[in-house]
Amino acid sequence: MLLLDRKTPKSIIIIEALLRRLDANDRDFTYFQDYLTRLKYGYEGEHRVDREWFEMPYLNEHYLFFNYEIENEFGFSHQVDTVLLTKHFLLILEVKNISGRVDYDEQKHQLTRTRPTGTEDILTNPFDQLHRHEELFQRILSKLKIFLPIEKAVVMANPSSIIGNVPKSPPIFHASGLRSFIKKCLVRNESKLTTSQLDKLAKYLLSNVVTRDFDLNISVERIRKGVLCENCNYSVVMTYKRGIWSCPQCGVQSRKAFLRALDDYRLLISDRITNQEFREFFHVESMYASSKILSRLNLKTVGNKKGRYYIIPEDILNR
Ligand SMILES: [Zn+2]
């Protein structure tokens, strides 16, 4: 049973908003473009591996957590790509979507990727990540007085990546090998938990999910203001006249563009906006007009008169 589904990471949503708003000549524009590509690539890989789970009838009673995030007792966060909980074992999985060949040097704790062109780079080492997660789960289990073996593995999501010299343990294999790995784990670990213990542990894990915030720390001055025209690839600022946002370049009229801009404001600056901040960001001069625009959205407000601010909800795009 899937207890925690994988959602588009906040980092992807926020960087997409940033790239709409960052000047193409900004010193970090290509850096964020590359960063977004990497994040999307990783996310796609995780999705590819997720599909494998739904063809394992022999799993019986189990709980799955995709992208399990938790904070440890020291205040540091753990982000585990997949956690599988069964009566036999708890499995933690790191998913890697890598093109080229990977080799791991155990002495140096170094994961090297060699691209088909021959260039090499060093990647985040999933083995140390797994060990760190394992220690946390060991502490959780002993706190709950539950005895359950912990299994761990690294799964390669890209079928064309080459797994070179790597340690035997923890195992690293292609996504197609996940099913036989799970079968082996079921055979070597006998059932340890009752259904109620399993449920209790699942409930504990779910109730301790802490989603990390993603903060870019970009100064507001670097972000382009206004409602941007989607039709013009967000390069043109739309103008507001008599209740309508329209593009001075292509002539398109769009309310959705306005909602998108409000959502960008929420993602990049704040989910709270005052009338004055609204006028500044959206280039609306009249206080009366901006009050009208904001009140039409039926947003929740806090405070009154000068100190009043509106709260931009996460579902603003559907208003
Ligand atoms: Zn346009």
TrEMBL record:
Name of one Pfam family that matches: NERD
GO CC, any one term: ribosome
Residues of the NERD domain: 41-160
Domain of life of the native organism: Bacteria
Keywords for the protein's UniProt record, in alphabetical order: Ribonucleoprotein, Ribosomal protein
Name of the protein this chain belongs to: Ribosomal protein L37AE/L43A
Protein species of origin: Ureibacillus thermosphaericus
